[in-house]
From TrEMBL:
Keyword Glycoprotein found: yes
Subcellular location: Cell membrane, Sarcolemma; Cytoplasm, Cytoskeleton
Protein origin, superkingdom: Eukaryota
Keywords assigned: Cell membrane, Cytoplasm, Cytoskeleton, Disulfide bond, Glycoprotein, Membrane, Signal-anchor, Transmembrane, Transmembrane helix
Protein name, UniProt field: Delta-sarcoglycan-like
UniProt keyword annotation of Mitochondrion present: no
PANTHER family, alphabetized: DELTA-SARCOGLYCAN (PTHR12939:SF6), SARCOGLYCAN (PTHR12939)
Gene Ontology BP annotations: cardiac muscle tissue development; heart contraction
Organism in which the protein naturally occurs: Leptonychotes weddellii (Weddell seal)
Gene expressing this chain: LOC102743063
Length: 113
């Protein structure tokens, strides 16, 4: 075995590479078990896609792994679970919020169809 082949084997397998910043995954990949990561991002200028036959679920956990908030995108609905739900503009202005006690519409104009 040449040194070049050994170096490629040490750096990663297939589409997965080890870099100085962590792991780099190129192309389409399939995860058969849950994926745990500090950060997932696309290359600059490229979109990040998640594909699922049923739904995509994002859970925010506390230190004891109890679900604090949850976002589920499914075939019929987008559901958000948590103490409060907010929609804001890019600049941070509140457009809509809802919790157990009140619903706030922060837009200057409300239109009902």
């Amino acid at each position: 075995m040449s040194d070049d082949i050994i170096a490629e084997d040490i750096d990663g397998m297939g589409n997965l590479r080890i870099t100085d910043k962590g792991l780099k995954l190129e192309g389409d990949s399939e995860f058969l078990q849950p994926l745990y990561a500090k950060e997932i991002q696309s290359r600059p200028g490229n979109a990040l896609y998640f594909k699922s036959a049923r739904n995509v679920t994002v859970n925010i956990l506390n230190d004891q792994t109890k679900v604090l908030t949850q976002l589920i995108t499914g075939p019929k609905a987008v559901e958000a679970y948590g103490k409060k739900f907010e929609v804001k503009t890019v600049s941070g202005k509140l457009l809509f919020s809802a919790d157990n006690h009140e619903v706030v519409v922060g837009a200057e104009r409300l239109r009902v169809l």
